[in-house]
Amino acid sequence: MAGAFILLQILSCAILAFTFNVRGKIVWNDVCPNATTLGNGKATIDNSILSGSIKRDGTFVIPGVPDGTHILSIISHDYAFDQLRIDVNDSLSSVEVRPFVPGTPMQPPSSILLPYPAVLTPRDRYVYFVPPESFNLAGMLSNPMMLLMVGGAGMMLAMPYLIKNMDPEALEEFKEQQAKLGGIQNAFQSGEIKSGINAIMAATEEQSSSSSAQPNKGGAGSRGRGNKKSKR
């Protein structure tokens, strides 16, 4: 047991010898003035694989960061921070800090070097509450369904005035058409589909016969006038 414990200590020391402590600091500003306002935030490496707590003065240390390229992030419930690229070179005992934009390729690295220890500032505050929209008459009237409803209501209000100013013959024809439409609707509503179809066919035949009768009358009149001229 003692030998296994000693071996474990040797392995842990060897692992620590090939890792690095990444240091950084949050510079408070008007967006987030202090650590109390920040709340339970923490500095993380590679999506919280490694993390370190943030002190009151804004400094943090992430221990045990291995050699290679990593992404440094600040996890906070209320505030947004930029991400940084961290290149750890254990052989040179150095850390290089570069800007990082999510979605950009890791290679080749950016030529812009930032100071180390890494410096981050709060960029913005998350807004979780969205106030409901107030009443907007113009927005309501721009809705197509509302326009149809308003147009239909306007036609209903204007219909009595239109009927009042119609010619007697046109009014009688309009009433006949309304009566036919009412009969067809009643037939379909009562389930008498056959009678409704017959009513539609009868109305269609009447319209076709009336349209064909009008040019015949004109032709007969022209022939009558032609006969009178020939008699003269």
From TrEMBL:
Residues of the ER membrane protein complex subunit 7 beta-sandwich domain: 37-148
Signal peptide positions on this chain: 1-24
Subcellular location: Membrane
InterPro entries with a match to the protein in the record: Beta_sandwich_EMC7, EMC7
Positions of region (Disordered): 199-232
Sorted UniProt keywords: Membrane, Signal, Transmembrane, Transmembrane helix
Bilayer-crossing regions: 145-163
Main location: membrane
Record has Secreted as a keyword: no
Keyword Signal in record: yes
Record-level GO cellular component terms: EMC complex
Membrane association type: Single-pass membrane protein
Superkingdom assignment: Eukaryota
Name of the molecule in the record: ER membrane protein complex subunit 7 beta-sandwich domain-containing protein
Protein source organism: Hypholoma sublateritium (strain FD-334 SS-4)
Lineage of producing organism: Eukaryota, Fungi, Dikarya, Basidiomycota, Agaricomycotina
